[in-house]
Design goal:
Blueprint lengths: L1 H6 L13 H13 L10 H7 L1
């Protein structure tokens, strides 16, 4: 997920497989741009959309 977000231009911090502050912020930005509720937490819809 971090690699996919990063490839789309989001700052996820270090790509390490851990969902930290920078990754949650990137998730929230992605959700906002996708017109979804900004929870900043990964869910099944996010994972599916990034595949």
């Amino acid at each position: 997920m971090q690699e996919r977000l990063k490839s789309q231009g989001y700052d996820v911090g270090k790509v390490d497989g851990l969902i930290g502050f920078a990754t949650r912020t990137a998730i929230g930005q992605w959700q906002s741009r996708s017109r979804r509720d900004e929870t900043c937490f990964p869910d099944a819809m996010l994972v599916q959309a990034l595949r």
